[in-house]
């Protein structure tokens, strides 16, 4: 299988190889989608951890919410892989903070690829990156640590997606696009070839980006223009 051979070349653990056990961090909507992805890939999910005490002891997708940070503190850091279930809606500050805090404490994050995703042999995925159902990542594209390429998104050849970025469902990135760290591209956004989007940007749903976007900018519309501040 091409995706598995690519995984071996980059030597990054990926859910597509199966036979791994993991705990999902967060028990919200994105976490639910991840559980389905992990099960489809043959990964054993032990349960969730979540910082919201109201969720502790609950059952989500038939799996227990084991507790909060203390539930991880009681386990050896390498006893189970972690999967970051904190979603990336809007800015990805919280998702990044969870990833970096736990990784600095010695925990390992599993790279997740849904079996229905298409991953070119030359594509590269960072630690904890997530490629969801129906997504396509083409030749020599790079997806950074903890980034999400969500359901049905298309990332064409030679694209680069920075760490902690979120490419929302249905986005289309033409060849050679650069997306900076912590940037969020809203549902069904389109970026034409060669465009560079900076760090910590917010691209609205349905926007069509035809020119470079500077760091920290918010853009919307067709073609995309700076959003008015309220």
Could you characterize the architecture of this molecule?
It is a single chain. The chain has 4 helices and 24 strands. It is α/β, with parallel strands linked by helices. The chain has a domain of 111 residues: Rossmann fold (3-Layer(aba) Sandwich). The strands form 5 sheets. The protein has an 8-stranded mixed sheet with strand order 6-9-12-15-18-21-23-24, covered by helices on one side. A 6-stranded parallel sheet has the order 7-10-13-16-19-22. A 5-stranded parallel sheet has the order 8-11-14-17-20. Strand 3 and strand 4 form a beta hairpin. The longest helix is centred in the first third of the chain and has 12 residues. The N terminus is likely disordered.
Write the element-wise H/E pattern from the N-terminal end onward: HEHEEEHEHEEEEEEEEEEEEEEEEEEE
Strand content: 25-35%
Number of helices: 4
What is the general shape?
Answer: globular
Largest sheet: 8 strands, mixed
- Strands across the major sheet, in which order? 6-9-12-15-18-21-23-24
Cα-atom Rg, whole angstroms? 17 Å
Enumerate the spans where pLDDT stays under 50 for 5 or more consecutive residues.
1-12
Number of DSSP E strands: 24
Task: Compile the SSE list and pairings.
Elements lengths: L1 H9 L10 E5 L3 H12 L3 E6 L9 E2 L2 E2 L4 H5 L7 E4 L8 H12 L7 E2 L4 E2 L4 E2 L4 E2 L4 E2 L4 E2 L4 E2 L4 E2 L4 E2 L4 E2 L4 E2 L4 E2 L4 E2 L4 E2 L4 E2 L4 E2 L4 E2 L8 E3 L4 E2 L4
Parallel strand pairs: 1-2, 1-5, 6-9, 7-10, 8-11, 9-12, 10-13, 11-14, 12-15, 13-16, 14-17, 15-18, 16-19, 17-20, 18-21, 19-22, 21-23
Antiparallel strand pairs: 3-4, 23-24
């Amino acid at each position: 299988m091409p995706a598995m051979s690519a995984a071996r070349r980059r030597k990054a653990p990926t859910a597509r190889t199966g036979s791994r056990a993991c705990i999902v961090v967060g028990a919200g909507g994105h976490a639910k989608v991840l559980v389905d992805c992990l099960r489809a890939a043959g990964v054993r999910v032990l349960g969730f951890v979540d910082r919201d005490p109201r969720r502790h002891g609950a059952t989500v997708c038939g799996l227990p919410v084991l507790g909060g940070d203390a539930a991880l503190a009681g386990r050896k850091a390498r006893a189970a892989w972690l999967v970051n279930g904190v979603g990336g809606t809007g800015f990805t500050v919280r998702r990044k903070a969870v990833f970096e805090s736990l990784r600095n404490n010695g925990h390992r994050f599993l790279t997740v690829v849904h079996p229905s995703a298409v991953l070119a042999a030359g594509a590269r995925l960072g630690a904890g990156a997530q490629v969801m159902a129906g997504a396509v990542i083409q030749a020599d594209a790079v997806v950074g640590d903890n980034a999400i390429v969500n359901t049905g998104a298309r990332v064409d050849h030679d694209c680069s997606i920075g760490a902690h970025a979120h490419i929302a469902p249905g986005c289309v990135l033409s060849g050679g696009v650069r997306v900076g760290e912590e940037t969020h591209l809203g549902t069904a956004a389109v970026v034409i070839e060669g465009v560079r989007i900076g760090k910590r940007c917010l691209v609205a749903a349905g926007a069509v980006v035809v020119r470079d976007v500077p760091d920290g900018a918010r853009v919307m519309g067709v073609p995309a223009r700076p959003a008015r501040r309220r």
